[in-house]
Design brief:
By secondary structure, the protein is α/β, with parallel strands linked by helices. Helix content is about 30%, strand content about 20%. The protein has six helices and ten strands; from the N terminus they run βαββαβαβααββββαβ. The chain has helices at about 10-20, 55-60, 80-95, 120-125, 130-145, 185-195, and strands spanning about 1-5, 25-30, 45, 65-70, 100-105, 150-155, 155-160, 165-170, 185, 205-210. The strands form two sheets. It has an eight-stranded mixed beta sheet, with helices on both faces. Strands 7-9 form a two-stranded parallel sheet.
């Protein structure tokens, strides 16, 4: 499978690329700073901006799916990102004939606020609110795009080894996640890769946490 990863230099993006290559996939990393990605067998690096539709369309040529793992640094947590990137991703995917798109979001974005509990929910409504509004704006465009999309909504992200049985459920079931839903980036990357070929997750907001319910 040939997978395009948008946001491949972030911590989750790096994990996603690493796992995809280890699983034998070809990966196209679309990044703003190509020099930040080390040459690796099976990896093609394309430099481009998040609003550069033509370059991203070319990068997606021959790809089977797109995984979006974008995130703002803490110092720019509320800066527009997804509302800039998602129109470009949508247009480029359609232009390149790629239907499958899996996007990293967060627990508490949009309707998934109902799946969060206190004290995490308090953070969603306060210091995370600007970032989550940006995600919701971008993801709302994806939902009406006609593409085969899935958004994945982890709790607070941490580095570390994959856990044996992370909790992964459809947000529409209405279940609430643990109060402190910490989530390993390695689990998120593995789940995103699995969802790329899982038709049962198309059109769904999927929750994930490394904490057992």
């Amino acid at each position: 499978m040939r997978i395009a990863v948008v946001g491949a230099t972030g911590r989750t993006g790096k994990e996603l690329v690493s796992q995809a290559l280890a699983d034998g996939h070809e990966v196209v990393a679309y990044v703003r700073r190509p020099e930040a990605v080390a040459p690796t067998p099976g990896l093609t690096v394309v430099g481009g901006q998040l609003d550069d539709e033509a370059t991203l369309t070319d990068a997606l040529g021959g790809c089977d799916a797109v995984a979006v793992a974008l995130g703002n640094p803490v110092t720019k947590a509320s800066a527009p990102l997804m509302q800039i990137a998602m129109p470009t991703v949508i247009a480029a995917a359609k232009g390149a004939g790629v239907r499958r798109v899996v996007v990293l979001s967060a627990l508490g974005v949009g309707a998934t606020l109902a799946n969060a509990r206190y004290p995490y929910r308090f953070g969603c409504r306060t210091f995370l609110a600007g970032n989550f509004r940006d995600h919701h704006a971008g993801e709302s465009l994806l939902e009406s795009s006609g593409l085969d999309w899935t958004t994945i909504h982890p709790g607070p992200l941490f580095d570390g080894a994959r856990t044996p049985h992370p909790t992964i459920i459809d947000a529409a079931l209405g279940r609430q996640m643990p109060r402190a839903p910490r989530t390993m980036r390695a689990d998120v990357a593995a789940a995103m890769l699995g969802m790329l070929t899982d038709p049962t997750t198309v059109g769904k907001q999927m929750l994930i946490t490394s904490v057992q319910r």
